[in-house]
Amino acid sequence: MLAFPDVQLLDVAGPVQVFADANHCAARPHAPATYGIRVVAPAGAQIRATSGLAFATEPLPDPNEPLDTLIVAGGQGVMRAAEDASLVGWLKVRASAARRTASVCTGAFLLAAAGLLDRRRAVTHWEYCDELSRRHPAVMVEPDPIFVHDGAVWSSAGVTAGIDLALALVEEDLGRAIALSVARHLVVFLKRPGGQAQFSAALSLQSADDHFADLHGWLAEHLAENLPLSRLAAQAGMSERTFLRRYREATGLSPARAIERLRVEAARQFLAETRTPAKRIAARCGFGSEETMRRSFVRLQGVSPQDYRQRFGG
Question: How confident is the prediction for the chain on average, in pLDDT?
């Protein structure tokens, strides 16, 4: 795990704890630990995370030392780290020798600076996706997923997504049963699938001055019903014209597009967690027909409901 001054502490601690727990869950009598975990940093000094907590690191290992997995953390200091030519050079050499390389959160900027994400799909924290695209146009940035796996390179979204990424790596190495044991011990999901959105549709509709929190809560309970503009405006206690204007200002979407996102999210949950037929899901979530649901899925998720279920169904 590569760290640096002003690193995000959870970007380091989350994945490290996953691998440490995997060692415990996969332990066999008289056998060495599955993972040998080292946190390294330039100069190997004690470094301070953005939270103010300081912790010890080891010096950067010799380029000839064997390496299986290299993970780069993110944090406020990542841009300075990406300007350190010697560190970027070390990263480039070590990544070429590793079986796989990964980034957590804004650690993607360091991978990109080393050219490791060129012509690859990648993700970072949603707030920095545009910046990653601007600085590194050769990177195919995908703003939505929790994590992305492209060849030998993995990247993950913000902060806690590093835990999802680490669980996916453990599952790849040791199987689903061990990854599930680790997740249960940490009291987290086994792993949120990489194609899941970084945050929920309801959360994405919130604004700093959220006048429509009650409306969104009400919508979640009435998605199966007909929801014309007149009904929404009445629920919000506004005229239709005022409601439409203020809703667009607050969310950046029309009410119809917002409802579509909420319905797709509800349908995604049914598809992933139940065996309910798609036709019934379409009705429960207010799409009216399976074809309408399919069109919304393709537009917002890039896949059909059937493909989504095959990929993420339990």
Answer: 90
Strand partners, 122: 141
Q: At residue 156, what are phi and psi to the nearest 5 degrees?
A: -135, 165
Distance of CA 74 to the CA centre of its chain: 13
DSSP type of residue 62 = P
Q: H or E segment at 71? A: strand 69-72
Amino acid in position 164: D
Active site residue 285: no
The torsion of the CA quartet 112, 117, 123, 129, rounded to 10 degrees, works out to 50
Decide if 305 contacts 293 (C-beta within 8 A).
yes
115-132 in b/e form (b: 16+ CB < 10 A) is ebbeebbbbbbbebbeeb
pTM: 0.69
Mean pLDDT of the 246-264 span: 91
d(CA 307, CA 131): 31
Q: Which of 25, 105, 129, 285 is catalytic?
A: 105
Q: Among candidates 279, 271, 280, which has minimal Cα distance to 310?
A: 271
Token pair 């008289």 is at which residue? 30
Question: What span, in angstroms and rounded, lies between the C-alpha atoms of 273 and 90?
Answer: 44
**Using CB atoms within 10 A of its CB, is residue 304 exposed (0-12), middle (13-18) or buried (19+)?**
middle
Name residue 148's beta-bridge partners. Answer: 155
**β-bridge pairing 100-103 and 153-156:** parallel
Give the three-class secondary structure for 55. strand
pLDDT at 124: 95
